[in-house]
Amino acid sequence: EKWDFVLVSDIHEMGSEKEAKRKKFLDELSKKGFTIKKIEDTKLFYGVRAPQQVFWKYQCLLGKPDKKLQNENSPQDIPVTTRIRIVHFILHNTVTPDLEKLNDLMKKKVFEAAFPLHEKEAVREFLKEKWARWRGVFNEQPIEKIRCYFGEKVALYFAWLGWYTCLLGVAALAGVLTFVAGITLFSSSQVSREICEANATIMCPLCDKKCPYWVLSDTCTYAKVTHMIDNEATVLFAIFMALWATVFLELWKRQRATVVTNWDLYGWDEEEEELAMELINNLQHEPRKYQHSYFRSTIVLLLVLLMIMVLIGIAHALVIYRVIATALFAQSSLGLLREQADTMAVMTGAVLHYITIVIMTKINRRVALFLCNLEKPRTFSQRENNFTMKIFTFQFFTNFSSLIYIAFFLGRRINGRPGHYVRIAGRWRLEECHPSGCITDLFIQMAIIMLLKQTISNVMEYLIPWISHKLRKKHKHPQKRSLILGEEVEAEDPCKRQWLSNYELNEVNVFSLFDEFLEMMIQYSFTTIFVAAFPLAPLLAFLNNLFEIHLDAIKMVRLHRRMVPRRANDIGIWLQVLEAIGILAVIGNGLVIAITSEFIPMQVYKYMYSPCAGDNRTDVDCSTGYINHSLSVFRIRDFEPDMGPGTEEPGLAPTGLCRRYRDYRNADDYTYTMQFWHIFAARLAFLIIFEHVALCVKLIAAWYIPDVPQKVKNELLCRKHTDLRKELRWVMPQQV
Fold it and tell me: Which of 7, 253, 385, 681 has the most CB atoms around its CB within 10 Å?
């Protein structure tokens, strides 16, 4: 027997309120012609099958939209995915005499679950054996069979994910080449060499009172790592990634057009299908009109801004942690911890940031759902779009607020200078950048967060449903209890085992696929927005996605109940999110190169202040003297009262002489030098030029690559022509 849906309920006492509500709902289904079968175990299971006329109405209203999925031998049969979708809609829109729907009854524990069944059909067995297995990591995805079993929306997700992963391979290769180019500069960089040889350059203390002066050459390895990341190849890679993001989107639009044309869904109208199902469910249905409330929208906007401020406040709390941690590590009795205080603060701060991401993800979801309920969207798709924009905005600030601080504010002018530091609560001064730049801090932060998200998060994503499924399967079902409701139940029903095995699987909800999309959008943001600071991000994303595809497949086919198939002809509002991320990637990478990187200051030094300035000398590296030129002089007598170092390190110059710090200031009055303003102007000019050039390249690429292939356009043209000729054949005989 084939059943479209199964409803699960606890065994309630005869005459109880819940039992009465359940009976009313089932009676309403019976009035609509539904066949209902009951099986009793530790729970009550109700199999639901819709009458055939429901599907005939659907085909009549929409003109057989599933003709490519129908069985050639039985053209009247409707695809299982469409049956499930229609029955799901009717179940959730059937109203009892108490004006309650299925969702209301589930909230009141009248019903525990409602789900379609995983059938032992050929398509599912193929997906289990060839797709939903770890050994199939490098196999091509069976998109057509995924569509036949899970519907178009899930199939489009996997088609998009496969396409994204394929093109990530190109970005990963470019990132690896950029990183390898940086490795070749590990020991050959003139700037790193100067830092390693600066044995006589005494730097100002990293914290107040207990921190000593230190020698610049102590950070030799850190400087080499910085210039391995921060070099000319990084600029080219950032431009390449801006172009890659555009080409990826344009090629996906073409791929999507080809796929949905093959499915005969290019011109599909979601609103028309929803209206058709409303009429099938209730012939007296009146469509809900479009409405807009400026008052409600204003309230929602203010609440969204308030939530964003909270998320920025959390980022500030992480900044405070890093400041305090740096001060405490610098005063530690452990030599390694004291010497690497900044790096340890960055690493522990990154771990803490990951923990806040995990926690705030759950909170962001609840807040976004609450705001969606305030908006009262007209349809489910509108609700999904509104929810998508809010949750992505919240997740973006949750994931990137701390990175934005490190990239654009850490060690900048807001920190002050020795003798006049900006302090938190008048006590702890803000962090400073290493003399070779801040980009390594951003590299470490991104590396730790991406590695944690792609290891711990993915392991938990698989283990939690796997363990939950195993525990449910091991649960011993007691013997059948009969006559509780005064009804006899067959002892050995052929459907019982199948229904129980489906019930033992993990629950799915309407946002199950949404969660997978959101995870990939955040990954795409990491891969593009700050990729100039972390060229290995595309490689990590590529390796993760090879397993993510099959992780999602295993969950859907083996560990979770069957997802309700949904029809779609694109990935929806996620395409707009991808386009927004592409624009943010241009802005973000431009800012990283202009502000975070030492690329601009170094170029200004080479062409205006270096030994090469003014003449073409070939006997000396043009970066010679850059480090000394980028350090300012500070007189120890100008320290704030009781804030100077308590002791001198053995072997350093006596107290009273000058010390160095990273900035461009005059030695007399600590005002900015002319070089500072030259660098400021160069950074601003580079940012404007880079972003305009990158955006122009994106626009040219978008124009050059048509969204719809000519083959698809010609196929649609031929279809229209053929349909019109068929219509004309019906008209001509009638005129005769």
Answer: 7
